[in-house]
């Protein structure tokens, strides 16, 4: 599926959704550094300058540039925004724990 571009994107944005048995077991764009395996659940945002791995449970997003993890700079976020990010992770962890009792 394609979407028209904006000031912040290329001329057109390509959206691919895979889930369950239809998800690819391998794709060159989904490779992680250090030959790590993809999480069981999550999303990968692929851009022109890098990729962002967003695991769905108990992990922070991971920025990948030139095949290596890079630290995500949170200096532009207020302390309140950082707390919201932390609370979101904690809530996801709690839900995951409850679901797996």
Our Rg estimate from Cα atoms comes to 16 Å
- What is the number of domains? 1
**Structural class label:** alpha+beta
Strand content: 15-25%
**Ends: how far apart?**
38 Å
Number of strands: 6
SSE pattern, N- to C-terminal: EEEEEEH
Report on the biggest sheet. 4 strands, antiparallel
Backbone shape: globular
Report strand order across the widest sheet. Answer: 3-4-5-6
- Report the total helices: 1
Average of pLDDT: 81
Layout of strands and helices, then pairs:
Elements: E1 2-4, E2 12-14, E3 42-46, E4 51-55, E5 62-65, E6 68-70, H1 79-99
Antiparallel strand pairs: 1-2, 3-4, 4-5, 5-6
Structure, briefly:
The protein is an alpha+beta fold and 101 residues long. The protein has 1 helix and 6 strands. The chain has one domain.
């Amino acid at each position: 599926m394609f979407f028209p571009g904006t000031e912040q994107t290329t001329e057109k944005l390509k959206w691919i959704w895979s889930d369950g048995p239809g998800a690819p077991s391998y794709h060159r764009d989904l490779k992680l550094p250090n030959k790590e395996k993809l999480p069981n659940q999550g999303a990968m945002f692929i851009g022109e300058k890098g990729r962002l791995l967003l695991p769905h449970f108990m992990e922070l997003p991971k920025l990948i540039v030139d095949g290596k993890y890079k630290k995500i700079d949170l200096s532009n976020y207020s302390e309140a925004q950082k707390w919201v990010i932390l609370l979101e992770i904690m809530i996801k962890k709690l839900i995951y724990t409850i679901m797996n009792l």
